[in-house]
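Trying the structure run again after the queue cleared.
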Amino acid sequence: MALFLYKALAGDGAVTSGELTAQDRSEAIRVLDKRGLQPVSLKEKSAATHKDNKLKKQKQAKSGAKGETKASTKTSTKAATKPQTGKQEIPAGGVKLKRQEVILFTEELSEMLGAGLQLEPALRSMESRQELGSLKEVSQSIRQIVRDGSPFSSALQKVSPSFDQLYCSLAAAGEASGALDTILKRQTQYLKTVAELRSKIILAMIYPAFLVATGVLVAVVVVTVLVPQLTALMQSTSGGELEGGLALIVGISDFMKEWWLVIILVLVAAGLFFKVWKNDERNRPTWDKAKLDIPLYGDVQSSRFYVQLLETMANLVANGMPLLRSLELCRDATLNEYFRENMNKVIDLVGDGRSLSRSLIRVGIFPSLLVDMVAVGEQTGQIDSALRRAADRYDKELNKSLQAIMALIMPVILICMSVLVGGMVYIMINAILDSVSSVGG
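Done. Tokens:
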């Protein structure tokens, strides 16, 4: 039997800590779960270490009386020469961080936790580093909140809005499972992938954006300069009648000149109305489901959800977290309301005693390949390994979808601009030829 030190959250949100004996870490987590406690930190403590700590406390108690007067004298002297520092006040709205700062914070903290440091010493170490910029202030504020007994995930929400709901939910899952370092390491990889994707998209969009700007400029010049001149020429040579595409361009030009202000106001009002409708809690599931039906983009969103779900589940289950609690934490880390509703259905079915694979089949939105891999893991008793293999599989699918989108951006924009500019040039050349032919006749 081993001795474990734990810090956990009770059902009413109170923080409690203590010791328990168990054969291994998984059994310790199950004991806490039976007591209705959600573990925040769980660390094995050997009997020798336990005795050493008692001896240290006894020595400190003996030497405390002797050093009390000296300590009070030193404290008063320091207080006279140096102002006493209190808790750092968090600015209104929190400390805003850049994306690279969030990645650096996550990477540094995951490495320190993985090296064996506890959360508060790791934050103190980051706080003492001068080159971290705003992260020094963030680390200090988070450490103060954690030291007061609040969970790490709650501290993230209070300190900075740059830690979004997904980040905080995954941090809560890592705290509950005792695998915060692993969860943060996965989150670092995810944030780096997103940052790399954004940089690739920006680089890939420079040339298409130049083409779009050039095409718009050409269209404005054609509509405002060339079309009026060509219209005057056609009306003077062909009886004042405009036909075909030229008449359509002239009509659009006249309409835009007369109603441009109304068009802008209508577009702005439509955008605001759509934003209000989309942000309404009652409409979010409908909108989130509609996004999944968008070609290519929907595949990216689905694959991203599967990868996040499978990786988080694998980490939680591997660290001894009960399956039902793991599903609840994965649901909380899901931003898409449509997927959250289906996760609630899975949780209800598993809570009624069904297996995970059968519950996924019953819900009906999960791919058959994912369900089959989960079923194999259940049969072999290695569900965490099966979940990781499935996560790797869908991570590859996600990369393929992203590469397909990147490959299609340039051809689609080129085709659209070719159709727009080429169509206008074709119409104008035909109009000029008709004008020349009528003059020659």
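The two ends are 108 Å apart (CA to CA). Worth checking whether this holds up in the mutant runs.
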